[in-house]
Design goal:
CATH superfamily of the largest domain: Vaccinia Virus protein VP39
Distance between the termini: 58 Å
Strand content: 15-25%
Bound molecules: S-adenosylmethionine
Number of domains: 2
Shape: globular
Radius of gyration: 20 Å
CATH architecture of the largest domain: 3-Layer(aba) Sandwich
Number of helices: 10
Strand order of the largest sheet: 6-2-1-7-8-10-9
Largest sheet: 7 strands, mixed
Number of strands: 10
CATH topology of the largest domain: Rossmann fold
CATH class of the largest domain: Alpha Beta
Helix content: 40-55%
């Protein structure tokens, strides 16, 4: 039986451990969330106490479990067409400004893509406004730290309920309706899915991209990091923007007061020099 002090120590260990591996800050108030989410993992693994689970995470055999713990503790909430004004800005302002000299090829990065709704939304907007049939050539890179979220994203299958923000005409053009056991589900068509490369990437570790991006969406992830970590993340990310490229963050996030190489055009929209 663990004492209250031991239990507190275990929660503190989890908070520090997740911070060290992902730079995600799970504040003390998140204790109930930590218990509930790791409780599921423990039941699955047959581990009786949080103390044993912490021991497992520290052990050599527990190293694979580290990713599952991160997956369980990160919040992957997202939906199609979320914070829609960003997509309008992308197609009406950002891309026309950057592509003014006749450039037909460009890249967009969805940097914390969760279960894929954000990159597929980007793909639908681009397909509608920059059709490949008219000579446009664009690619999307979509990354996340969570392998579980990425597996869903890569599959590209969504329930009817999750499709509720997508206009009917877009569903017809970009999705296949499921039959039989897939009744009530929709799968992204290969023409759209084929423009998107999904891969695991921790925004706080060193990473590379083969080509720079005209626009980066890094939305609703910064909120989990402390200010020095945000500064580091944006500085690193800005290196992968073309000159005058755009960085879009979540509506409730801000880079105010951070020393970063992008300037604010309007709330949540930034531009590299
Ligand atoms: C709330 S979701 C946001 C999804 C989408 N961008 C949106 O705005 O709807 C946050 C995502 O950030 C991811 N994430 C958290 N820490 C990360 C890190 N260090 N590197 C990359 N992705 C991370 C989580 O796995 C989660 O999928």
């Amino acid at each position: 039986m663990s004492t209250a002090t031991e239990e507190k120590e275990e929660i503190e260990f989890i908070i520090a451990f997740i911070y060290e591996r992902s730079r995600i800050r799970l504040h003390d108030g998140k204790e109930a969330l930590i218990r509930a989410r790791l409780g599921k993992r423990m039941r699955l693994l047959g581990i009786p106490t949080l103390r044993d689970y912490c021991r497992f995470l520290r052990s050599a055999e527990g190293q694979e479990e580290v990713q599952s713990a991160i997956d369980a503790l990160t919040t992957n909430y997202t939906h199609f067409l979320r914070e829609e004004s960003h997509f309008d800005f992308l197609i009406k302002t950002a891309l026309p400004a950057l592509l003014a000299k006749g450039q037909r090829r460009f890249n967009v990065w969805s940097a914390a893509c969760a279960t894929g709704e954000e990159p597929y939304t980007l793909g639908m907007y681009l397909a509608e406004h920059f059709p490949l049939a008219e000579g446009w050539d664009w690619r999307l890179t979509a990354t996340d730290i969570s392998t579980k979220a990425l597996a869903t994203a890569g599959q590209g299958i969504y329930s009817e309920e999750r499709m509720r923000h997508v206009p009917e005409a877009w569903i017809r053009r970009h999705f296949q309706r499921g039959h039989g056991r897939w009744e009530g589900h929709y799968r992204v068509k290969p023409a759209l899915a084929g423009r998107i490369t999904f891969r695991q990437l921790n925004l706080l570790e060193a990473y590379q991209h083969a080509e720079p991006f005209e626009v980066i969406f890094c939305r609703n992830v910064m909120i989990y990091f402390d200010r020095p970590t945000q500064e580091q993340l944006v500085t690193r990310m800005a290196r992968f923007l073309v000159p005058r490229g755009y960085l879009l963050i979540g509506h409730s996030e801000s880079l105010n007061g951070l020393d970063v190489p992008v300037r604010c055009l309007r709330p949540s929209i930034y531009q590299a020099s």
